[in-house]
Design goal:
With about 575 residues, the protein is of the alpha+beta class. It folds into three domains: about 1-80 and about 200-275 and about 410-440, FAD/NAD(P)-binding domain (3-Layer(bba) Sandwich), CATH 3.50.50; about 90-200 and about 280-395, 2-Layer Sandwich (D-Amino Acid Oxidase, Chain A, domain 2), CATH 3.30.9; about 460-580, Alpha-glycerophosphate oxidase, cap domain (Helicase, Ruva Protein, domain 3, Orthogonal Bundle). The chain has helices spanning about 1-5, 25, 35, 50-60, 100-115, 135-150, 170-180, 200-215, 265-270, 350-365, 425-440, 460-470, 480-490, 490-495, 510-525, 535-540, 550-565, 570-580; strands spanning about 40-45, 65-70, 85, 120-130, 170, 185-200, 220, 225-230, 235-240, 250-260, 280-290, 300, 320-325, 330-340, 375-385, 395, 400-405, 415. Strands 3, 4, 5, 6, 11, 12, 13, 14, 15 and 16 form a ten-stranded mixed beta sheet that branches. Strands 1, 2, 7, 8, 9, 10, 17 and 18 form an eight-stranded mixed beta sheet that branches. A hairpin with a 4-residue loop joins β8 and β9 (about 235-240). α4 runs parallel beside α8 (about 200-215), α4 crosses α11 and α15 packs parallel to α17 (about 550-565). The chain is globular, with a radius of gyration of 24 Å. Bound molecules: flavin-adenine dinucleotide (FAD). The site of flavin-adenine dinucleotide has 43 residues, from α4, β8, β11, β14 and β15.
């Protein structure tokens, strides 16, 4: 408890927050204080503020270790900002006969719905079945039954909104009613099962960081780790550089965890001079955000080309494209391409987008998608395994790699490369077990699968939502409260403390949403280390992630940031231009 109280920064503006009973409000002010970092010696320094780094920081701090996490850009601005937002329930791993991975995904899906009930919700997935072979409804029915058996305990959450119904086969007529424009030739029905969906993956990552911060972790974005403080077989810490001021400083730590995602090759090369670091083969992956194609269900349709996966027990010969309903749009993915460059050279070309649109239109001609229908492109690099031995098709790595000691050139450095957003919490737990081993201590049991994250203290999500919408705090409309709760959960009232006086229901709809957005921007500045316009537009608020929101709202955000952060006109225009460049032309 002492730690939580210490983590309240006395010099921060605290508008009406101190009367809140929830300790998270007190402990969750993420502030960037670099002068402190150089003076302390931490148990563990985490390099990289993607979902994996965030999960390690939360697990380690919850188990009582002192933690510092440094991120060279903004938190979650790497691969983690780019996922299809599916929290896998494990069904897809049945074709590999990988029961262990199925169980792991099911448990993680359940854990995330428990600890972040405002952000993770069940997602129905419908896959049309064709013929009576491997892609037919009989095989699908067996697969669903096995899946339900393996997930016998997946509904042990108290909240009924989080319960996953049994999978079932829908008759052909019902599938055609739900998906009237899919190919009817040989259609025999459809298999319905449930995955999980993250409403806002950037805020899920921030919830992990807020929670870590509330347990005393020190966090800083825009700080790059450029080297290590070396000893003979060990490191003493890391060399950090503030990407905003250019200042360099050392940070001492007993253990270093590299969670740099696709940049891990670069950090390992620095470390392993002379130790012969082995490069990971990376795969370019991306998905497109388009006008809505299907609502209510995520739909999986078989791609046209043949696909071979020599690790599968049942090779269906086709890869599925998923069209996922998300915030009045469709997220369509995932496209994979082989990749040669390094992480800093990553980009998605117009040709990539064009080719993928063609593939989608072949799979689902009714979509007739054109370049102008693409509102946003999410892309990143994923660790590849190898090509399929017969076909040369791209295959992704299945398991996270956690390497340590001699393997990475120093005994107290752990190198972590994850494969799925879904399993980051659990992998973080394993990494922290290793940290304890290196420290020569017995690890206390991890509690991150059962401890609500910041904003996640909601025993019954639907009840909480209805109650708060009825209460209409500060006179807000149910629509505004709904949106805030889906983003901030039980912490949403902390955002309301930044509302302008006119932010309530008595104002007309547009000024209400403007008032709420202004409050979110101020909250992000004061409590969530927003430094750039892109941080606010893409990773603190939901303003920019579902397509270009228009000039007015982003200019309003820029005006608040420029006033608070002292930008001149040229800097403000540069920030605006950087944000606009991220949208497809
Ligand atoms: C298109 C796409 C769709 C996907 N869809 C899904 C999905 O639906 N479900 C799912 O479960 N998974 C999905 N994934 C996978 C998932 O997104 C990744 O496994 C996960 O985000 C990887 O997180 P990470 O923390 O390892 O990497 P990152 O998010 O890349 O984080 C690494 C961080 O390290 C920082 N860094 C690097 N070098 C340094 C340094 N020297 N100093 C300081 N910081 C540094 C980087 O800036 C970066 O922010 C998808 C991935 C892609 C690309």
């Amino acid at each position: 408890m002492l730690r939580m109280i210490i983590s309240v920064r006395p010099f921060i503006h605290l508008p009406n927050l101190l009367h809140k009973p929830d300790f998270y409000f007190l402990g969750a002010l993420m502030t960037r204080n670099l002068s402190r970092l150089a003076k302390a010696r931490y148990d563990v320094a985490v390099v990289g503020g993607g979902i994996y780094g965030a999960c390690v920081a939360w697990d380690a701090s919850l188990r009582g270790l002192s933690v510092v996490l440094l991120e060279k850009g903004d938190f979650g601005s790497g691969t983690s900002a780019n996922s299809l937002k599916i929290i896998h329930g494990g069904f897809r791993y049945l074709q590999h006969g990988d029961v262990g991975r199925m169980r792991e995904s099911m448990q993680e899906q359940m854990a995330l719905m428990r600890i972040a009930p405002h952000l993770v919700h069940p997602l129905p997935v419908l896959i049309p079945t064709y013929g009576h072979g491997l892609r037919g409804k009989e095989v699908f029915a067996c697969a669903l039954a096995i899946n339900d058996l393996i997930g016998f305990d997946r509904n042990r959450l108290d909240d009924p909104q989080k319960h996953i119904p049994r999978g079932r086969i829908l008759p052909r007529s019902e599938v055609l009613q739900l998906l009237p424009n899919i190919s009817e030739q040989n259609l025999t029905g459809g298999g319905l099962f449930y995955d999980g969906m993250v409403y806002n993956s950037e805020r899920l990552l921030l919830s992990f960081l807020h929670s870590a911060e509330s347990m005393g972790a020190e966090l800083a974005n825009y700080v790059k780790v450029g080297g290590y403080l070396r000893e003979i077989d060990n490191v003493r810490g890391i060399k950090a550089e503030d990407m905003i001021s250019g200042e360099r400083f050392p940070v001492e730590a007993k253990v270093v965890v590299n969670a740099c995602g696709p940049w891990s090759d670069q950090t390992e090369e620095i470390l392993s001079k002379g130790h012969g670091h082995q490069r990971i083969p990376w795969v370019k992956a991306f998905n497109l955000l388009t006008r809505p194609l299907f609502s209510s269900y995520a739909v999986g349709l078989a791609a046209r080309g043949n696909y071979s996966d020599d690790r599968a027990l049942f090779n269906k010969g086709k890869r599925l494209l998923f069209m996922v309903p998300w915030r009045d749009c469709s997220l369509i993915g995932t496209a994979y391409r082989s990749y040669e460059g390094n992480a800093d050279q990553f980009s998605i070309s117009e040709e990539d987008i064009h080719e993928f649109l063609q593939e989608i239109n072949q799979v689902y001609p009714h979509a007739a998608l054109k370049t102008k229908d693409v509102a946003f492109v999410n892309g990143g690099l994923l660790p590849g395994a190898k090509m399929d031995s017969r076909s040369g098709d791209i295959q992704l790595e299945n398991e996270a790699s956690i390497r340590t000691r001699g393997d990475v050139g120093a005994r107290n450095v752990i190198s972590l490369v994850g494969v799925k957003f879904t399993t980051a919490r659990r992998v973080g737990e394993h990494v922290v077990d290793r940290v304890f081993q290196i420290l020569g201590k017995t690890p206390p049991a991890s509690q991150t699968s059962v401890t609500p994250l910041h904003g996640g203290k909601i025993p019954n999500f639907q009840e909480f939502l209805n109650q708060e919408m009825d209460n209409s705090p500060r006179g807000l409309s149910p629509k505004a409260v709904h949106r805030l709760i889906y983003n901030y959960g039980s912490s949403y009232r902390a955002v309301l403390d930044y509302l302008p006086d006119t932010g309530g229901r008595d104002t007309h709809d547009e000024s209400e949403s403007t008032g709420v957005l202004q409050a979110e921007v101020r909250y992000a500045l004061q409590n969530e280390m927003a430094q750039r316009l892109s941080d606010v537009v893409f990773r603190r608020t939901e303003l920019g992630t579902a397509g270009y929101p228009g000039d007015r709202p982003i200019e309003m955000c820029a005006a608040i940031l420029s006033k608070e952060l002292g930008w001149n006109e040229r800097q403000t225009q540069q920030e605006l231009a950087k944000v606009r460049r991220l949208y497809p032309r």
